[in-house]
Give the backbone structure.
Amino acid sequence: MKRVGLIFGSRSVEHEISVTTASKVYEVLRQLPAECEPVLLYLNKSGAWLCGKAVSRLLEVEAEGRTCEDLPRRKALQQAFKQELERLERGTGSGDVEQLFLPPDASLRGLCGNPARAGWFRRHLQASLDIAFPVVHGTHGEDGTLQGLFELANLPYVGPGMAASAAGMDKILSKLLFRGAGLPSVEATWFTRRQWLTDEAAVCAKVESDLAYPVVVKPAVAGSSVGIGRAASRPELSRAVRQAMQFSTRLLVERAMEDRLEVQCAVLGNHDLTVSECEELLGAGGIVSFEDKYLRRAERPEEADLAPSHIPARIPEDLARQVKELAIGAFRTLDARGISRVDFLVDRPSMRPYVNEVNTLPGSLCLRLWELSGVTPVELIRRLLTLAVEAHAEKAATRFESEEGRAVVDKKHLMSPRK
């Protein structure tokens, strides 16, 4: 049996989304009692790593509130969920809670106690781990930071590696990589928050020189449509930039595709890749917003068709085939592994698809996509755990020293003056 560290939360505007994803994955892991033992690790909004009964209670309240059909009961549970979050933010909870750390020490591979509590960094292992399963959406998790820690700790982990995670999170970097690989991507320009604050007029002029209105303004590093705005004039551009730069130091401005479809599909595997069915998203407005993706369905599940989607997408077979081929191309361009979801914009008049972004973590949208593609959640989670172990074993076959390096060290040692 493998001990699976389910890691969620963190300092991110997508904090609550991460809790929901963790709740869904936890439900699946509990259906595999003979194969794995979940170890819940909650990162609160201050960045503290918490473990214990209070963390389990948080996921239980979230799951019950999300699935409850009785409206008064659901509202009470949602309020209880907020209270649990507040308690954990203060370091307390409705049950036991302990602050732990994952040290970047490859000889430990597990969670250690709070060093401040003992006065020194305690090396006593509190909870050994076999696999890390990060479901942290957004910054300080999805952006490669957690993956780097797992690499230092020599701990197998689910999902893409450090470089792929960082590139997938950064809309500017991923767009440059897609262009370099010859993948179709919507025309865009970008600038920094510092440039905007230094000379707003010059930045506006550059945007207007590179692109025609309307445009879409996006934070370079943010997910779930957070901070995205549309602009059809310079005043609207200024408002959209001021909103977006709250969430990132760099901003991307793209040509707005007025008559379009939004399509996505998921990719599974390390080398031999499988692609899910295509899903067509329908937003309430011109842009599929954070509210469309999460709040409408979360707050009123009995009216989930407020932001409907179609699986499979209502597109021609040849276009679906092209989208899936491009999804594999984007996945490989970022050197992703495990699982990712690739989002596309499709220009209706030409029916030409453009790669929008790669979402590198196994969030709830991927679970739903695979389930409607004939892969059950249990089968998917089991496969992800296997892929994590295989990727780690493959890396273990890589050498981290060379004969040349040892020769240099030996030569320096021989040439050093004797004392």
